Amino acid sequence: MNLKLICFSLFIAALASNQYFLNLHVLFFEYLNNFNPKTFSLPLISTLISHHHHDEKKTIKSICDYFPLDIPPPDTNTTSFICVDRNGCCNFTTVQAAVDAVGVLSPKRTIIWINNGIYFEKVIVPKTKPNITFQGQGFTSTAIVWNDTANSSHGTFYSGSVQVFAANFIAKNLSFMNVAPMPAPGDVGAQAVAIRVAGDQSAFWGCGFFGAQDTLHDDRGRHYFKDCYIQGSIDFIFGNGKSFYENCRITSIANPVPLGARVINGAVTAHGRASKDENSGFAFVNCSVGGTGRIWLGRAWRPFSTVVFSLTTMSDIIAPEGWNDLNDPTRDQSIFYGEYNCSGPGANMTLRAPYAQRLNDTQASTFLNVSFIDADQWLQPYNM
Ligand SMILES: *[C@@H]1O[C@H](CO)[C@@H](O)[C@H](O)[C@H]1NC(C)=O
Ligand SMILES: *[C@@H]1O[C@H](CO)[C@@H](O)[C@H](O)[C@H]1NC(C)=O
Ligand SMILES: *[C@@H]1O[C@H](CO)[C@@H](O)[C@H](O)[C@H]1NC(C)=O
Ligand SMILES: *[C@@H]1O[C@H](CO)[C@@H](O)[C@H](O)[C@H]1NC(C)=O
Ligand SMILES: *[C@@H]1O[C@H](CO)[C@@H](O)[C@H](O)[C@H]1NC(C)=O
Ligand SMILES: *[C@@H]1O[C@H](CO)[C@@H](O)[C@H](O)[C@H]1NC(C)=O
Ligand SMILES: *[C@@H]1O[C@H](CO)[C@@H](O)[C@H](O)[C@H]1NC(C)=O
Ligand SMILES: *[C@@H]1O[C@H](CO)[C@@H](O)[C@H](O)[C@H]1NC(C)=O
Ligand SMILES: *[C@@H]1O[C@H](CO)[C@@H](O)[C@H](O)[C@H]1NC(C)=O
Ligand SMILES: *[C@@H]1O[C@H](CO)[C@@H](O)[C@H](O)[C@H]1NC(C)=O
Ligand SMILES: *[C@@H]1O[C@H](CO)[C@@H](O)[C@H](O)[C@H]1NC(C)=O
Q1: Does 332 qualify as catalytic in the annotation?
Q2: Could you tell me the pTM of the whole model?
Q3: Hey, which of 67, 112, 194, 358 would disulfide with 176, CB 3.0 to 4.6 Å?
Q4: Which member of 235, 328, 332, 361 is catalytic?
C-alpha cells in the first residue's frame, strides 16, 4: 500500500466515523494533493460502505444527526432546491438521481445541494435540463469521480465523469475528477476527461478539475471559471469553447524532466477553433501555471486555435518556445497565441516560437475582462 492509498483509506474511514465533519476537510485536501492517477485505483465503494456501515452503528446513533436542518431550503418563485447526500440523509443519494428529478425545460433554476463526500458515478446533464446548479461544500470536500477513458467509452468526448449538454449550468465549490490511470508515453486511448462542458453560458466558481490527459473538455459555448484548480498533463484544457479563466491555479502533473533534457511531455491547452468565422478562444487572467514536467502553454489542435495568457505567473516548467503548431507550419499564420504582462521564469518570451505574440495594451484589452464572454448578457454574481 502506498501513501496515496493509505490517505484514501483514512479518508473513507473518516466518512464512516463520528469525526466526519472534523476530519473530512483535512483528509480530503491531503488526498487531493497526493492524487496521482498513476497509482490510484477506484475502490469498490460498495465494499467500503457495507464494511463501515457496521462501525457507524456502533459509534453514533445515526449519521443523519449531523445533517443540516435547513437543507433543502423551501422553493422560491424562481428557484427550486433539492439535495444529495451519499448516506441517504436527504432527497437523493446520487447526483444523477437529482438531475433526473429536475423537470424538462424548467424555466426556474434548480439548485442541487450536494453534501460532502466522493460520489462515484458518471453524470449526464442532458440538453433538456437547463438552469441547474451543482452546489458543493468546497472543492476539497465534495467530488464527482469516475474513471472512463477514450478506450472504455468509445472516444475521448464520451469519457467525461460529468457531461453537461445543457445551457446555463452552474457549479460551485466541488470537484470533477477522472481517476483513470495516467497514460504512459506513447499510450493510445488513455485520454480521460473529468468534465465536458458543451452547453452555452456556464459558470464554475471555486471548482476543482482533476485528471491527466484531457482533464477539462471546454467543448463549446461561453464559459466562466473563477478561483478554480485545474490539474492534468497533456492538453488538459481543451475544446472549442469561448472561455474566461480568472484567478485559477493550473497544475501540471506531467513526469518531471531531468535538467537539460529537451523532452516536452505536456501542454496546458489544445484549443479547437477551426476557422476564422468562429469566435472561440481561451482567455486566462491572473492565473498561475506550475507543477511538474516540461510543457507548452498550448498546441494548435486546429488551425485557428486562440489562447491568451494575461497577468499570469508561470514557473520554469514552461518550455522556452512556449507554444507548438503540431508540426504544421501552415497554422503559424492563423493561430493566435498571445501573452500579456505575465511573470515568473516561464514567462520569459525571448526564445518563444515566432508566431507567439507579446500583446500590447490595446490588443490585450479584449481578453482582459468578462466582456470576452458577453457576461453582461448572462453571468450572475457568485451569490445569486
Ligand atoms: C475503473 O475502475 C474499476 C474499479 O477499479 C476497474 O474495474 C475498471 O477497469 C476501471 N476502468 C478503466 C477504464 O480504467
Ligand atoms: C411569488 O408568486 C406569488 C404567487 O404568484 C406572488 O404572490 C408573490 O408576490 C411572488 N413573490 C415574489 C418574490 O415574486
Ligand atoms: C426533498 O426533501 C425535502 C425535505 O425532506 C422535502 O420537503 C422535499 O419534498 C423533497 N423534494 C423532493 C423533490 O423529493
Ligand atoms: C433557463 O434557461 C433558459 C435557456 O437556456 C434561459 O433562457 C433562461 O434565462 C434560464 N433561466 C434562468 C432562471 O436561469
Ligand atoms: C466557494 O467558492 C467561492 C467562489 O470561488 C469562494 O469564494 C468560497 O471560498 C468557496 N467556499 C468554499 C466553502 O469552498
Ligand atoms: C486502447 O485500445 C487499443 C486498441 O484496442 C489498445 O491498443 C490500447 O493499448 C488501449 N489503450 C489503453 C490505455 O488501454
Ligand atoms: C489574483 O489571483 C489571486 C489568487 O487567486 C488572488 O488572491 C488575487 O486577489 C487576484 N487578483 C485580482 C486582481 O483579481
Ligand atoms: C502591462 O505592462 C506594461 C509595461 O510592460 C505597463 O505599462 C502596463 O501598465 C501593464 N498593464 C497591466 C494591466 O498591468
Ligand atoms: C530570458 O531568457 C533569455 C534567453 O534564455 C536570457 O538571456 C535572459 O536573461 C532571460 N531574461 C530574464 C529576465 O530572465
Ligand atoms: C498594438 O499592436 C497593434 C498590432 O500590432 C498595433 O496596430 C497598435 O498600433 C499597437 N498599439 C499600441 C498602443 O502600441
Ligand atoms: C472590458 O474591456 C473592454 C475592452 O475590451 C472595455 O470596453 C470594458 O469597459 C471593460 N469592462 C469592464 C467591466 O471592465
Answers
A1: no
A2: 0.89
A3: 194
A4: 235
